[in-house]
Amino acid sequence: MIALGGRPKQTECRRFRTQWPPMRRIVLTGVPPFEVQDLAGPLEVFAQCDYEIELVSPERDGSTAINRGLRITGGTDFRTFDRPIDTLWVVGGPEAPSGHYDPAYLRWLKEMSSQARRVGASCLGTFVLAASGALEGRRVVTHWQWCDHLAERYPRVQLVRSSIFVKDGHIYTSAGITTGIDLALLFVEEDFGPRKAFAIAQWLVLFVRRTSSYAQISKLLALQSGSIKPLDDLENWIIEHLAEDISVERMAANVNMSARQFTRVFRSEKGTTPARFVERVRVEVARSLLEASGVGVKSVAAKCGFGSADSMRRSFLRVVDTTPSVVAGAHRKSGTGRGP
């Protein structure tokens, strides 16, 4: 059993603490059982801030099941919950798309969604929020495996299939699983500023902070889908040495092959040449930096080993059919979708 409720205890990360605005209440709710990561990821982010975190459950005893045999206690039955909500977060779970919901709970959810300053839904929690009527006419996202199902069941929502999260007015929806962490970090940035969000991301050992422009199906992850262990290790080495000259000879020596043998094996395994692979990795990492860090184009070009901004621009056009300046400009404008 896991207890959750009341004001969060002070964490070990006291270095994050500073003088924040008055405490805001975040209410976590949804149709049980919850997906573990859909709950744990955002909860860990919120726990590093001065939020008051509460669990509100459809169950009369206030507890909520998790889909790995665990149960959270210390929550409140929605029928007796009577406190103001700053942020309402609808957690996803395997039963969320079932269509079997308590009508009274859906009415409560819609009312709270209209009263809260901000609403978030993670993964399949979008189905529950849509069932309440709170998402009609809004742009929304859910996990890529369930997009067709959501579009068929709720034709009045405007489905965005590719993004990891979307904002429409005061309502945010995310693709779920790890993307709940990205959306939670955005909430922290809105409330406490980018430095706080960065500190938490760093503490969580995230590879990069993703913005809404990231696709659910990662191209960088697809490049790592091989089955030969030395090549998998090489991919990590490439990322760590992007700013350097990465020649075929150097890569081949890294995996104890001749340049000719390495090129043949690499192309057979990855479906592309080593040079094109390195270029794609450089583009993907550069795009991540431009979208998430606010670093200038010339600086990113140097960090990612392009040699010059012009060289990076040509690679971007070749690989992703856009330019670094367009990517950076989209990030500056916000990148989170339709605002209030």
TrEMBL record:
Q: Which GO terms describe its molecular function?
A: DNA-binding transcription factor activity; sequence-specific DNA binding
Question: Which Pfam families does the record match to this protein?
Answer: DJ-1_PfpI (PF01965), HTH_18 (PF12833)
What the entry lists under InterPro entries is as follows: Class_I_gatase-like, DJ-1/PfpI, Homeodomain-like_sf, HTH_AraC, INH-QAR
Q: Which Gene3D superfamilies does its entry note?
A: 3.40.50.880, Homeodomain-like
Task: Give the source's domain of life in one word.
Answer: Bacteria
Fetch the PANTHER family from UniProt.
Answer: ARAC-FAMILY TRANSCRIPTIONAL REGULATOR (PTHR43130), HTH-TYPE TRANSCRIPTIONAL REGULATOR RV1931C (PTHR43130:SF3)
Q: Give the HTH araC/xylS-type domain ranges.
A: 232-330
Q: What is this protein called?
A: Helix-turn-helix domain-containing protein
Xref: CDD domains = GATase1_AraC_1 (cd03137)
Q: What UniProt keywords apply to this chain's record, in alphabetical order? A: Transcription, Transcription regulation
